[in-house]
Amino acid sequence: MDTAWPAISEFMAIARDRARGDALGWSHGAYAFNRISDRDRVHLVHELMQAWHAGTALDREVVAGAFRQAWDSEPYLYGFRAGNYFTAAARYGADVSTSRLLEAWASAMMMPDEKAEMAALEFPCTAYRGGTGEPAGVASGTSWTLNPDTARFFANDWPRRWGSTARPVVLSLTVDRSDVLAFFDDRNERELLLSGDVPRAGFEIVEP
């Protein structure tokens, strides 16, 4: 790996050490990501986004494992939560659109059982999204769910944990298979990642 990407070089060294001579894969990327500090993870995601944008050759399986951890978890920096690691990397100056990156990487971020379950899903289906603020702004998000209770949690309980008093809203949207980049269910959230090209104007307000 080019020395222009020191965080990536360190990350790959940890992944190779974990592999112990076996072929590198998704799990090695996930392991290496979780072995480093919150701050180093933000720097890693920032470098990976920049390297991908620059056309640098990356080990797709290993990086996908790291990206999945980056999507599923949140850094705790300077006493506050900073969204997921993609959000945090953007705050540190990553000039790559997260939605554009997910178009290229989301399918590789799925685990085998999730790929099988996504293949078995019936479309069109109803997706839900919970958040706070103006409905159109909430609808623009990438992360939706098949479970309305999960959407309610992110509209009500989750924001309140961090002191938000903004108005909660739960939306629904009918989506087709071609609209969905990936299906994640490791946290039992039945999460659908929607393409940024999916029209959101057809959403309906479920609550309040």
Helix content: 40-55%
β-strand number: 8
Question: Quick one: overall form?
Answer: globular
Order of strands in the sheet with most strands: 3-5-8
Order of helices and strands: HHHHEEHHHEHEHHEEEE
Write down the Rg: 18 Å
Number of domains: 2
Number of helices: 10
- Category from helices, strands and their pairing: alpha+beta
Instruction: Note the main sheet.
Output: 3 strands, antiparallel
**What would the average pLDDT be, to the nearest integer?**
93
First and last CA, distance: 51 Å
List low-pLDDT spans: none
Question: Could you tell me the strand content as a percent range?
Answer: 15-25%
What would you say this structure looks like, in words?
The chain has 208 residues and is an alpha+beta fold. It has two domains: 6-108, no CATH class; 113-207, no CATH class. Helices cover 47% and strands 17% of the residues. It contains ten helices and eight strands. The protein has helices at 6-19, 26-34, 38-53, 60-72, 85-91, 98-109, 112-120, 135-139, 148-155, 157-161, and strands spanning 76-77, 80-81, 125-132, 143-145, 168-175, 180-184, 191-194, 204-207. A three-stranded antiparallel beta sheet has the order 3-5-8. Strand 1 and strand 2 form a beta hairpin. Helix 1 (6-19) packs across helix 2, helix 2 crosses helix 4 (60-72) and helix 3 (38-53) packs across helix 5. The relative contact order is 0.12.
